[in-house]
Amino acid sequence: MQVNGVSPSVSFHKPQSQQASEAAHANNKTTEEQTKTTNSKETNDKQDTQLSQEAKREVQKLQARDREVRAHEAAHKAAGGGLIRGGASYSHQRGPDGKLYAIGGEVSIDTGAVSGDPQATLQKASQISSAALAPAQPSSADQAVAASAAMMAAEARQAIAAENREKLETSETSEDDKTNQVDTETTQQTDRSLSAETQPYQAVANYTAEATPPKLDLIA
Q1: Residue 69 CB partners (closer than 8 Å, separation 6+)
Q2: pTM for this structure?
Q3: CA end-to-end span of the chain, whole Å?
Q4: Residues of the chain with pLDDT under 50
Q5: What is the 3-state secondary structure (H, E, C) of the chain?
Q6: Which of left, alpha, beta for 86 (phi over 0: left; psi -120 to 50: alpha)?
Q7: Can you say whether the dihedral through the CA atoms of 144, 145, 147, 148 is positive or negative?
Q8: Closest-CA residue to 163 (of 115, 114, 117)
Q9: Phi/psi of residue 30, each to 5°?
Q10: Residue 147: closest CA among 125, 166, 163
């Protein structure tokens, strides 16, 4: 039988072999893993960047604290002068960059009274107070030292006042003794003067008494 016309064009899909199928599956799997790895790497890079920023902020905080602590102790030392014993000691914290930063500090200061000298003790108390309150933001420990210095200054003032009263009383007693001595000397001089002035009259009186004969009793 002859068939007139054009035969329809039919496309045939040739089925893949098993090896080709496995290779294609492997390629797909590899692509997926690469995608996951890429995404994971991007995530880690992002996390590393965030941690780096946090570390930088932490370092900046530690640097600021270090400057503050060192300036604080330097102010104590400058105002304390010869009363400061040794250098400043610091407590440190290691930062994310591996460096040590001062986060606290202290200096030792001589706070004892000057034995037997309240005036010197008063001056010392004033310097102690100035040293304690020298930083821009005195700590509670600094304020406690300043309060102790104020008490020492008050005691020194009381001692100075007592010494002044004692000196005044001694001076007044001395002046009274001098006045009494002058009065005694003046009285003695007056007595000697009067004695010299009345001596001639006394002699005449004595002579008259001796020259007058005794009176006789007359019997009528």
Answers
A1: 90, 102, 103, 104, 105
A2: 0.56
A3: 237
A4: 1-20, 24, 204, 207-209, 211-220
A5: CCCCCCCCCCCCCCCCCHHHHHHHHHHHHHHHHHHHHHHHHHHHHHHHHHHHHHHHHHHHHHHHHHHHHHHHHHHHHHHHHHHEEEEEEEEEEECCCCCEEEEEEEEEECCCCCCCCHHHHHHHHHHHHHHHCCCCCCCHHHHHHHHHHHHHHHHHHHHHHHHHHHHHHHHHHHHHHHHHHHHHHHHHHHHHHHHHHHHHHHHHHHHHHHHCCCCCCCCC
A6: left
A7: positive
A8: 117
A9: -60, -40
A10: 125
- Show Cβ contacts of residue 200 under 8 Å, excluding neighbours closer than 6 positions: none
Q: Which two tokens stand for residue 216?
A: 């006789």
Structure tokens at 70: 């060192």
Tell how far CA 37 is from the center of its chain. 59
CB atoms within 10 A of CB 35: 10
Per domain, the residue ranges of the chain are: 32-110, 111-195
Tokens 């030792």 belong to which residue? Answer: 108
Q: Which tens digit of pLDDT belongs to each residue from 134-164?
A: 999 999 999 999 999 999 999 999 999 999 9
The closest alpha carbon to 72, from 105, 40, 95, 121, belongs to: 105
Amino acid at 128: I
* Inter-residue long-range contacts of 27-32, CB under 8 Å, 24+ positions, other chains counted: none
